[in-house]
């Protein structure tokens, strides 16, 4: 899980990323989820519908991103809402990169 470390000189805080964090970002669907969350919080059903995947598959991707610390979850009785974690500042260039990701055409063999 990502963690904040002590401040360095004038740069403020820096983020410590572990290998598992990069593994969480290695999946195109999870990058598409982050791309959606750049524009604000979304619930599981709207994410699943936008990605044309089951809510079970959406929950799996969201759980991985949540456990890695990239997103926050607000649980309610009816549904869970997710948003980018507040410590992640995405630069304009980063937003550009996320927005340039093309939706993946699922393989007929893939179950994501």
Describe it.
- The protein is α+β, with helices and mostly antiparallel strands.
- The protein has a single domain, classed as Winged helix-like DNA-binding domain superfamily/Winged helix DNA-binding domain (Arc Repressor Mutant, subunit A).
- Helix content is 41%, strand content 14%.
- It has helices at residues 19-24, 28-37, 44-51, 55-67, 92-100; strands spanning 3-4, 15-16, 42-43, 71-75, 80-84.
- The strands form two sheets. The protein has a three-stranded antiparallel β-sheet with strand order 3-5-4.
- Strand 4 (71-75) and strand 5 (80-84) form a beta hairpin.
- Residues 1-14 have low confidence and may be disordered.
Itemize the secondary structure elements and their pairings.
Blueprint: E1 3-4, E2 15-16, H1 19-24, H2 28-37, E3 42-43, H3 44-51, H4 55-67, E4 71-75, E5 80-84, H5 92-100
Antiparallel strand pairs: 1-2, 3-5, 4-5
Number of domains: 1
Kindly report the spatial arrangement of strands forming the biggest sheet: 3-5-4
Which structural category fits the helices and strands?
alpha+beta
Number of helices: 5
Counting DSSP E segments of at least 2 residues, the number of strands comes to: 5
Helicity range: 40-55%
Strand content: 5-15%
In this structure, how is the largest beta sheet organized?
3 strands, antiparallel
Shape category:
globular
What sequence of helices (H) and strands (E) makes up the elements? EEHHEHHEEH
Mean pLDDT: 75
Task: Give a quick summary of the entry.
With 112 residues, the chain is an alpha+beta fold. Helices cover 41% and strands 14% of the residues. Helix 3 crosses helix 4 (55-67).
């Amino acid at each position: 899980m990502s963690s904040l470390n002590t401040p360095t000189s004038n740069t403020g805080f820096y983020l410590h990323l572990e290998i598992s964090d990069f593994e969480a970002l290695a999946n195109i669907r999870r990058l598409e989820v982050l791309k959606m969350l750049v524009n604000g919080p979304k619930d599981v059903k709207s994410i699943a519908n936008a990605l044309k995947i089951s809510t079970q598959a959406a929950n799996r991707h969201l759980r991985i991103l949540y456990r890695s610390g990239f997103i926050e979850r607000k649980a309610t009785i009816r549904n869970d809402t997710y948003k980018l974690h507040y410590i992640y500042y995405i630069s304009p260039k980063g937003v550009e990169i996320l927005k340039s990701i093309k939706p993946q055409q699922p393989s007929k063999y893939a179950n994501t």
